[in-house]
Write a structure and sequence with these properties.
- This protein has about 400 residues and is of the alpha/beta class.
- The protein is built from 14 helices and 15 strands.
- It has two domains: about 250 residues, Type I PLP-dependent aspartate aminotransferase-like (Major domain) (Aspartate Aminotransferase, domain 2), CATH 3.40.640; about 110 residues, Alpha-Beta Complex (Aspartate Aminotransferase, domain 1).
- The strands form four sheets. It has a seven-stranded mixed β-sheet with strand order 4-10-9-8-7-5-6, sandwiched between helices. A four-stranded antiparallel β-sheet has the order 11-12-15-14, covered by helices on one side. The protein has a two-stranded antiparallel ribbon with strand order 1-3.
- Helix 6 links the parallel strand 5 and strand 6.
- Bound molecules: pyridoxal-5'-phosphate and (2S)-2-amino-4-(2-amino-3-hydroxyphenyl)-4-oxobutanoic acid (3DJ).
- The site of (2S)-2-amino-4-(2-amino-3-hydroxyphenyl)-4-oxobutanoic acid has 5 residues, from loops.
- The site of pyridoxal-5'-phosphate has 13 residues, from helix 5 and helix 6.
Length: about 400
């Protein structure tokens, strides 16, 4: 049984704040603070360039990738950390298209995060092969997968509503139809059990700064199915993905397997932060995380519905159809969220009217859920959302 009191103590959580935004930016793990400080003063400060060999810097993308692999049902040596999710998606999509043969359709859905669609729109145009991005409603994806589709490119958990795709079933249907699959796990990795190997997915990407708590702008990750890595000709090639980076050959020869998905020099300080943050998952069972996340989110929904009739649930009611977030719709959601934040509850807002709350059992407990509901009730009852200063606050996130 996972000891969530122990994991909570691993994080620095500011006094007086209930933090339900770890689905966007995880809080600071104490170990990350210490690790980055040590990496700066001891490894960088004293070892200087020797750090690349002596401090494990060169292998850190694979070391970190292996730690992430355990959380997403992937074998060791199939995940590498680095770059951003958008860039990793570009690598995965361009590779997937080249593996898919003459088919021209890349299938995605309108619940996808915009960056995924932007990457696809421009990468497909740049490839110049006449590929078409087909975007359907989330519930139409299964029925649209057929043998005309080249690539299925989906985000498993909808960033706005928390709606969860059935990865197992959709990947199986893709496989039956000869479709290459790519999953964006930005809102899945560390949020719920994922079984990439069991689903037989081809590619996956995801973020290091959300549920994995690596810090702002932490490196992302990319997964390639075992055996597939050696068949990829990376479009985004660089020396760190070369078979022998320090041979300084003038010709590109890809490294074996997942290593060829590396491009340039890894951001070691961010990577070290993510590496340390991932140790919080030692002794944590993803099944326990899922059970606890459902308990927390079910209680949150019950409290909100009992206290705030103005709010409409925008997430699936069935917890098995949701990720680890709950969204509610409210026409003045932006100002309401600003009022909640000013009163110690941090969630976020997604246009046009979604108030979004993430549940992260590693450091959020039932008391936090009740306090959050009390704060939202006060915002609604006292119409704090109608105050001019909350309405006027600058929209950044
Ligand atoms: C589903 C999804 N994919 C990708 C991203 C963007 O990733 P990045 O900014 O690291 O490229 C986000 C959030 O920003 C996201 O929610
Ligand atoms: N990556 C972010 C950023 O740099 C600033 C603010 C928010 C983000 C996010 O991650 C947004 C997030 N993907 C979302 O689900 O909306």
């Amino acid at each position: 049984m996972t000891d969530f009191a122990r994991t909570r103590a691993l994080f620095e959580l500011p006094e007086g704040i209930v933090y339900l935004d770890g689905n966007s930016l995880g809080p600071l793990p104490r170990a990350a603070r210490e690790r980055v400080a040590r990496e700066v003063s001891r490894e960088w400060g004293e070892k200087l360039i020797r750090g690349w060999n002596e401090a494990g810097w060169m292998d850190l993308p694979e070391t970190v990738g292996d730690k992430i692999a355990r959380l997403i049902g992937a074998a060791k040596g199939t995940v590498v950390a680095g770059d951003s999710t958008s860039i990793n998606l570009h690598k995965a999509l361009t590779a997937a298209v080249s593996l898919a043969g003459p088919r021209k359709v890349v299938l995605s859905d309108s619940g996808n995060f915009p960056t995924d669609l932007y990457v696809a729109q421009m990468a497909l145009r740049a490839l110049g092969g006449g590929h078409e991005l087909k975007v359907v409603a989330p519930e139409e994806v299964a029925g649209t997968i057929d043998d005309t589709v080249a690539v299925l490119m989906l985000t498993q958990v909808d960033y706005k509503t928390g709606r969860l795709h059935d990865m197992q079933a959709l990947t199986a249907k893709a496989r039956e139809n000869g479709v290459v699959s790519i999953w964006d796990l930005a809102h899945s990795a560390g949020a719920l059990p994922v079984d990439l190997a069991g689903a037989d997915a081809d590619f996956a990407v995801g973020c290091g700064y959300k549920y994995l708590n690596g810090g702002p702008g932490a490196p992302a990750f990319i997964y390639v199915r075992p055996g597939l890595g050696d068949r990829i000709d990376p479009v985004l090639a660089g020396w760190m993905g070369h078979e022998a980076p320090f041979a300084f050959d003038l010709d590109y020869r890809p490294a074996g397997g997942i290593q060829r998905m590396r491009v340039g020099t890894p951001p070691i300080l961010s990577m070290a932060s993510l590496d340390a943050a991932l140790d919080a998952w030692d002794g944590v069972s993803m099944d326990d995380v899922r059970d606890r996340s459902i308990e927390l989110s079910e209680r949150f929904i019950a409290e909100i519905e009992a206290r705030c009739p103005e709010l409409t649930l925008a997430s699936p009611r069935d917890p098995s159809a949701r990720g680890s977030q709950v969204s509610v719709a409210f026409r003045e959601g932006y100002a309401a969220m600003q009022a909640a934040i000013a009163n110690g509850l941090i969630g976020d807002f997604r246009a046009p009217d979604i108030m979004r709350f993430g549940f992260t059992p590693l450091y959020i407990g039932m008391d936090d859920v009740v306090r959050a509901a009390e704060t939202i009730e006060r915002v609604m009852r006292d119409k704090l959302w109608d105050r001019a200063d909350y309405r006027a606050r600058a929209k950044v996130t």
